[in-house]
Write a structure and sequence with these properties.
Elements lengths: L22 H8 L7 E4 L3 E2 L3 E2 L1 E2 L3 E2 L5 E2 L3 E25 L7 E21 L5 E7 L3 E2 L2 E9 L1
Antiparallel strand pairs: 1-11, 2-10, 3-9, 4-5, 6-9, 7-8, 7-9, 7-11
Length: 151
């Protein structure tokens, strides 16, 4: 990815922001983020041991969300669910079809419909993200991942 520069108007390097950085530094920081969220989910009742789907109802343990960014890390997880309930979401990476399936982390939802988590978990470029409902059940769950990395 090429550097983001402002071509018209004031010089971005000389304009301070509330964070103490210049406008150009803030723009440069934007290129370190991949997508704001990648999503997995599954319709209906999802008992213990249920793998979440990616778009198109493909089980994420078979074909997960490809990690494109270099030096990736998961920095946030948001979980939604139709009912107030308790369960965990295990987050995995793999090479496809469960090859080298590796548990990265687990988030715990306790008597809630929605939960958000700030985490800092390293992942591997070129692998795929997957998610699984464990230690409880969920109805119509959705899980969003926020990743950071370099381009």
């Amino acid at each position: 990815m090429q550097d983001i520069k402002i071509k018209h108007g004031p010089v971005a390097n000389g304009i301070p922001t509330d964070s103490g950085n210049t406008v150009q530094e803030e723009l440069d920081n934007l290129k370190n983020a991949s997508s704001p969220a990648f999503s997995l989910g599954r319709p209906g009742n999802c008992p213990n041991g249920t793998w979440l789907y990616r778009t198109g109802s493909v089980p994420s343990n078979k074909t997960g969300i490809p990690i494109r960014t270099a030096n990736p890390k998961i920095v946030g997880v948001s979980v939604g669910n139709e009912n107030i309930t308790s369960f965990d979401v295990e987050i995995y990476e793999h090479e496809g079809n469960e090859v080298n399936l590796t548990l990265l982390t687990t988030v715990n939802i306790v008597a809630a419909r929605t939960a958000t988590f700030n985490i800092n978990v390293a992942a591997t470029q070129g692998r795929q993200l997957a998610g699984k409902i464990v230690n409880g059940s969920a109805k119509n769950p959705g899980v969003d991942f926020e990743l950071e990395g370099t381009t």
